[in-house]
Specification:
Layout: H1 14-17, H2 19-36, H3 38-45, E1 48-49, E2 52-53, H4 54-69, H5 83-112, H6 119-133, H7 141-147, H8 152-180, H9 187-253, H10 257-282, H11 287-298, H12 302-313, H13 318-343, H14 351-354
Antiparallel strand pairs: 1-2
Helix pairs in contact: 2-9, 2-13, 4-9, 4-12, 5-6, 5-8, 5-10, 5-11, 6-12, 6-13, 7-8, 7-11, 8-9, 8-11, 9-12, 9-13, 10-11, 10-13, 12-13
Length: about 350
Amino acid sequence: MTDTPNAAAAGLGTFERWLSVWVALAIGAGLLLGNIFPSLFTALASMEVASVNLPVAVLIWAMVYPMMVGVDFGALRQVGDKPKGLVVTLVVNWLIKPFTMAALGVLFFEYVFADLIAPEDAQAYLAGVILLGAAPCTAMVFVWSNLTRGDPTYTLVQVSVNDVVMVFAFAPIVAFLLGVTDIVVPWDTLLLSVGLYVMLPLLAGYVTRQRLVAKGGEAAVDAFKARVQPFSIVGLLVTVVLLFGFQGEVILERPLVIALIAVPLLIQTYGIFFVAYGAARIWGIPFNVAAPCALIATSNFFELAVAVAISLFGLGSGAALATVVGVLVEVPVMLSLVALANRTQHWFPTEKESS
């Protein structure tokens, strides 16, 4: 979820703090309902137009639109204020993270777990983790920044820059990595997904934000987001229910599949954090920028990854399942990294010392 520094000031809210629990419950509900009402899920899967599942499209928009309202592109005017943190995060997000995620996916799904995963499933899970690795977070990063007492202005600038880059870079990177790993890339569906789930929500969020600011300033923006935020959480959880309703039979037959998918995701998450955090330390970046720049580089825009996986490969695909596992591990892992950053802040200079 995208948020403003003010909205994040209280840290994690109830839903965010327990997001992994809600997701786990939604997984259980999906498995149960998928086995009790298989015809219902089949009917929902058939509601498609141009490879876009309509119920899921509505749910994804419910997730993404509130986030995009929180993006302030006026912050781009301050892009040169904290250049070191910006460089670290951009390099990690776009030149390192997608490629290490693809490499780890190939290593584990095609070699380490080769005896445990069928080749066609391995390709599907690989596609899912590639989508996660290529989608940098525009969401919980303000919360992570706040929990480390990070610079809110830097965080806002970083998120805004990431959103602009994502419009142009996400599709080519995903297509390249899927192609390199011999996964067929339906370019038309990929571009449609980027337009539907990135560009249009970003435009709608911008228009909404401008109108709200004109009427009541940032207070009106915060009030609007507070009203629509529950729809974002509900959209995410219902999407998870649908995904696991379709995946129910496979998962019940092979319950270890969730753990197998989680292994490369966990290694990637911790590894990327230490790359970004280490680079920030070597470069002498003050802690109030170093912590958020590393956490932003680490976190994923899992809502986008879920949406694109469903569009490209279908609701019942292994790719969609892999992106949902990313949701499951995201919050507890990121909280552990927040705690680590706070315990090691003495490694970094203060902002006064670095100036």
